[in-house]
Amino acid sequence: MNMVHRLGAIVTVVVLAAACTETSTPPQDVFNRQQMLQEVADGLIVPAFDTLLQRTDLLAAAVKRLSVASSPEDVASAQSAWVSVAEAWQDARLFSFGPAEGMFGTLAENIGTYPVSVSKITARIEAGDTALRGFDRDAWGIYGAEYLLWNDPLTVHKLAYLRAVVAKVRAEVVSVAEAWRQSYRTTFVGRNGTDPGSGTSMLFNATIFSFEQMKNYGLGLPLGRLAGQSGPEPQAVEAYYSGRSRDLLKRHYAAVMRIWEGALPNGTKIQGFRDYLTTVANGQRLIDETLVQHKRVEDAFASVPTSEPLSDLVRANDASVMVLHTEVLKLTRFLKSELSSLLGIAITYSSGDGD
Amino acid sequence: MAISRWVLLYLQQQVPATALAAVRIVFGLLMLASCLRFIALGWIEQQYILPKIHFPYTGFEWVASLGSPGMYIIFGLMTVATVGMILGAWYRLSAIVFFLTFTYVELIDKTYYLNHYYFVSLVAFLLCLVPAHGAWSIDARRSAAQARTTVPRWTFDIFLFQLTVVYVYAGIAKINEAWLLDAMPLRIWMPAHDDLPVIGSLMSIPWMPWVFSWAGMLYDISVPWFLMHRRTRWFAYAAVVGFHLVTGMMFQIGVFPLVMIGMTLLFFIPAPVTVAPSTPTLRPVHAVIGLFIVLQLLTPWRFLLYPGNLYWTEEGYRFSWRVMLVEKAGTATFSVTDRRTGRTGIVDNRMFLNEHQEKQMSFQPDMILQFAHVLHDHFERMGMTDPIVTADVWVTMNGESSTQLVDPTVDLSREQLGFHRNAWVLSDE
């Protein structure tokens, strides 16, 4: 019994120590997740959707001006309006949670599906369809509009379909942009824990998901490097018809790394996962390793020739694109498993018990 | 034969039937709450209906999800069985149905393995063997033959034994360098919970992980003994409640804290011992319980049969009360190569697995091998010739730099699943 009492006393002391420790002195190097969420919401997410909406409006106006008799200049101006939408999309596509997670799929699925199905688009145009019902996401969206804008000549039916496609994109974007400007920003910033459903966890998961989409479907699939493919599929690149693939891919990657780094598009520093890492055990080690691999990816991007569109490079089994894919693959573990492990972020979207 | 004499004397001892009835009621209520929670969260669909593949346990590969509506029916039966247990109505049948349905669900996919689910299966198994409906039950009211005033002491003690095994082995598992000296993985986990009410501010104090690590180890090892003694019982129970509330807030462990807070109440049940007038005869159930005890004591040590670092290879890891012991995460990239043409492709794991499955698979060798076999069969059906499957798997353990878990040159489609040592798992040195 004596032994039991002594052990009891030890446990009491330890438990009391754990329970009653002085709480008035806040620790020095605690990361402020709420600040990160605030800065990301106000500096990246809300502006990304607002810009996307503004540019979609400009595209809608440019498309409205088009007619079957339009000059090449008018078409070129609509095409350039499309390019700025596609560029804005690279900044917004990461945030596929909250308002972007609709009952009928995510915003990325609804407006960002590629490659598009030419046969489905043709069939709908021939049927004079402008209602765009159903789930043929590869018959519309941003990349559906791209196909139509780079596919002359313009016909009356084609124009009507194009306008419907752009209007549909706008309708999808406007609901997300408005939700962020109204109540969702507060919801997002308020969930400052690390559990599934927290702002940090959603931001992390969505960013990594987007990164993996870029890796697998921006590069892997066109290169013919996914299991089950029999060769390269050049038409599967993002923005095949406009030939903007390489540039958009790079923007997509830059958007992913801005979340990691904590930076606005203009370079202004905000709080990001990198800053979070500096406050946890082994964090600096991971920052250094991530930066080494990030540099390799950037170098690989720089080595991809700009003289030819990505689809042609892919068709020719260009070694520089293969290298880029490999380096992006190698970056995965630093961004995905190691980051979430060190920060204690729940990696699953849905909750589930762990032991 | 002192031991056999002791056993016979022990088997002759009786406790009130109400003590055992209390076990039945407490457990039944906890399980009813668990079932309803699981159903309400939509996890039947998420975990057992939507996934394209599952990860069954070695030896139980024949266990498959029934899909919809089969799985809903299973959970319906399970829930009804908990009510049967609580009321003591058709008790044996209820206990058996609960044990079978619950264990069946757990066997479908090791992705969702949790120590406390294993604990539930064990308790449910034990409840099938004991007359827990002897008192406070509809069965006893309906039939005098079922009613009892006393039950053999072992039928009650076996539950205390099971609880003690859980705690003590969980404590022993914490006696390792990483846990006690490096305060890992708590040093990673605690700061992530600095937003908790009341205790949040403790989480980011630099030395607090060491306090929690040591307190956790001492708590696990000692708490059953303190619960057994009358003078320390209330104090120990306060520790139980405190410990499980804190871990419940910190970690996503669902109903586990509630189950332990509920089940440790059993230590409070007065069970004065009387001695039955007649000498007991040994029955098969005694042999089953004997075997159960031996297996419970030995199973956690089976890892000693495997070389290498247990936490890294996970060979002999499960079913051993190693609870929240290591922080691991991995990134696994699989390549599939046509054996005839030599053409290689990379797999998008998410085409086959849900997030939870991918996360668990990415650092557990047996799941990696299972997934490799799935990929082999899938791509063979798609027209590839006997595909070679290799895996590039990088795992980080307790915040260290990732290292490769699997020999990336080994064709996993040729490796067999089983209890043998997996030679293709690389050492973490």
Structure characterization notes:
The complex is a heterodimer of chains A (355) and B (429). The longest helix of chain A is centred in the middle third of the chain and has 35 residues, at 156-190. Chain A has two domains: 29-190, A middle domain of Talin 1 (Up-down Bundle), CATH 1.20.1420.20; 193-355. Chain A has 13 helices and two strands, in the order H-H-H-E-E-H-H-H-H-H-H-H-H-H-H. Chain A has 355 residues and is an all-alpha fold. In chain A, a hairpin with a 2-residue loop joins strand 1 (101-102) and strand 2 (105-106). Chain A has helices at residues 2-20, 33-65, 72-92, 107-111, 118-126, 141-149, 156-190, 199-223, 245-261, 273-277, 283-303, 310-315, 319-343; strands at 101-102, 105-106. In chain B, helix 5 runs antiparallel to helix 6.
Brief account:
The complex is a heterodimer of chains A (355) and B (429). Chain A has 355 residues and is mostly helical.
What is the secondary structure topology, with strand pairs?
The complex is a heterodimer of chains A (355) and B (429).
Chain A: H1 2-20, H2 33-65, H3 72-92, E1 101-102, E2 105-106, H4 107-111, H5 118-126, H6 141-149, H7 156-190, H8 199-223, H9 245-261, H10 273-277, H11 283-303, H12 310-315, H13 319-343
Antiparallel strand pairs in A: 1-2
Chain B: H1 2-12, E1 13-16, H2 17-40, H3 43-49, H4 67-87, H5 91-108, H6 115-129, H7 138-142, E2 150-152, H8 153-173, H9 177-180, H10 186-189, H11 200-203, H12 208-228, H13 230-250, H14 256-263, E3 274-275, H15 284-298, H16 310-313, E4 328-337, E5 344-346, H17 355-361, H18 365-381, E6 388-397, E7 403-404
Antiparallel strand pairs in B: 1-2, 1-3, 4-5, 4-6, 6-7
Helix pairs in contact in B: 2-4, 2-14, 3-4, 4-5, 5-6, 6-8, 8-12, 8-15, 12-13, 13-14
